[in-house]
Amino acid sequence: MKLNSIPKRKNRVMPGKRIGRGYGSGVGGHTVGRGTKGQKSRAGHKSTRFFEGGNVPFFRRMPKYKGFNQPQKVEAQAVNLEVLDKEFKDGDLVNLESLVSKGIARKNSKVVKILGKGEITKKLKVEGLKISESAIEKIKKAGGSIK
C-alpha cells in the first residue's frame, strides 16, 4: 500500500493553523502570513469594518446627541376621584384654587386632570379642570355637575 492509494476520508476536521508561534509551527515564521511590510503587518492594526485607515472614525466625527427638553411642554397633575371624595364635602366647588388650597395639587401646577380611579359618593361641582371620561360618568352618576 502506498500513500497515494489511500482513499480520502470525507468530513475530516483539521486542526486550525496556530499562527504566530515561531518557526517551529510550520506557518509563517516572523511574518506569520501577514506579508512583509505595511500597516497591516504591524501589531495593533484593527482590521474591523469600522477601521478607516488612520482617519478619525465616523462615530467620533458625528456630534453627540443628548436629546432636548421641550420648553412649552405642560404636564398635567393627576388627581383621582377617591381623593376628592375624602377631601371635599357634599356640594363643594372643585377647581384649581380649591385643590391647591387643600394641598391636593402643587402650588405651581397649571393643569390638573381628574382621573376615574375610585368611587365618589358626594355631589361635587367641578369647574375648569380636565376630566377623563370614566371620571365624568362617575361624577354625573353621583349627582355632581361639570362646567
TL;DR?
This protein has 147 residues and is of the alpha/beta class. It has helices at 58-61, 81-87, 96-101, 133-141, and strands at residues 77-80, 93-94, 112-115, 125-126, 130-131, 145-146. InterPro entries: Ribosomal_uL15, Ribosomal_uL15/eL18, Ribosomal_uL15/eL18_sf, Ribosomal_uL15_bac-type, Ribosomal_uL15_CS.
Shape: elongated
CATH topology tier name of one domain = Ribosomal Protein L15, Chain: K, domain 2
Gyration radius from CA atoms, angstroms: 38 Å
End-to-end C-alpha gap: 106 Å
Main features:
Ribosomal Protein L15, Chain: K, domain 2, alpha/beta, single chain, 147 residues
Walk me through the structure.
The protein is built from 4 helices and 6 strands. It has 147 residues and is α/β, with parallel strands linked by helices. The protein has a domain at 79-146: Ribosomal Protein L15, Chain: K, domain 2. It starts with 57 loop residues before the first helix and ends with a strand.
SSE map:
Layout: H1 58-61, E1 77-80, H2 81-87, E2 93-94, H3 96-101, E3 112-115, E4 125-126, E5 130-131, H4 133-141, E6 145-146
Parallel strand pairs: 1-3, 2-4, 3-5, 4-6
